[in-house]
Design a protein that fits this description.
The protein has helices at residues 17-28, 81-96, 161-188, 229-253; strands at residues 2-5, 31-39, 45-55, 61-68, 73-78, 109-110, 119-128, 131-141, 200-209, 212-221. By secondary structure, the protein is of the alpha+beta class.
Length: 255
């Protein structure tokens, strides 16, 4: 690959400035073969990497890899398409790896396999007595959300919207199973449940995939796992002990 234009790297093409500028213009006007891009808060493309085919003034077929963002303007080209394809994929992957594990993925849409996409919206529903009830619709920047402040799982960044739906529904089902258990335990000792129980969960993920907007829905049943008689007895003893301790404290402090 030779460098025709770069913000930080030296020009390596054996051409004068005017010739480089002419080829850069031709590369930008060339036929788009592949593309990867990110978007701003308004959904407009603000950075991207493109593979374009173009023809030089003397009739040579060449392949250009273009990387543009508010801070970068790079154009590389070669006469070897395979080399250009590899350079394109490498550029996309390198930029995708720039973010740390807690940041949003770099790209909103990419045709490079395994590169995570950035933005999707998520709707979570729970089935109660045969009826589906939506609980939240929220936008996430790439990472599968930690759906509970007490969840120790750190799910990986999904590489497709389908995998996002699959991973999220599994986590929601896990949390709902715990909520079902807690609700049954509270009911057994005559207390109101902190969260409602549900027989199944469903998530719908919508976002930008390789071919435009995609929507994926996944459902998963939540098996009943009621507390045992011993667990109910243990819980009741814990509650009685807490009440006794609270009564002792009130007596000690006079309130």
């Amino acid at each position: 690959m030779r460098t025709l234009q770069s913000t930080y790297e030296p020009i390596t093409a054996d051409l004068d400035e005017e010739e480089c500028d002419a080829l850069v213009a031709l590369a930008h006007a060339g036929t788009e073969m592949r593309s990867t891009h990110s978007t701003d808060a308004h959904g407009q493309t603000d950075a991207g990497v493109w593979l374009r085919a173009y023809t030089t003034p003397d009739g040579q077929q060449r392949w250009a890899v273009i990387h543009e963002s508010p801070q970068i303007a790079d154009v590389f080209d070669t006469e070897d398409r395979a080399e250009a394809e590899a350079a394109y994929a490498s550029e996309v992957r390198d930029l995708a790896d720039c973010t740390d594990e807690y940041a949003a993925p770099w790209w909103a849409c990419s045709d490079v396999p395994g590169v995570p996409h950035a933005v999707y919206t998520l709707r979570i529903e729970r089935q109660q007595d045969g009826q589906w009830t939506g609980r939240k619709t929220q936008e996430y920047l790439g990472r599968v959300p930690d759906l509970s402040p007490h969840s120790a799982s750190d799910l990986c960044t999904p590489t497709t919207l389908q995998s996002a739906a699959s991973e999220i529904v599994a986590e929601v089902a896990r949390l709902q199973a715990a909520a079902n258990y807690d609700a049954a335990l509270a009911e057994a000792v005559g207390l109101p449940a902190r969260e409602e129980s549900a027989q199944a969960v469903r998530v719908t993920v919508t976002g930008t995939g390789a071919d435009g907007e995609e929507t994926h829905t996944e459902e998963q049943p939540v098996p009943a796992d009621p507390p045992t008689v011993q667990e109910i007895a243990d819980y009741r003893r814990i509650l009685l002990a807490a009440e006794a301790e609270e009564a002792t404290d009130r007596a000690a402090y006079g309130h």
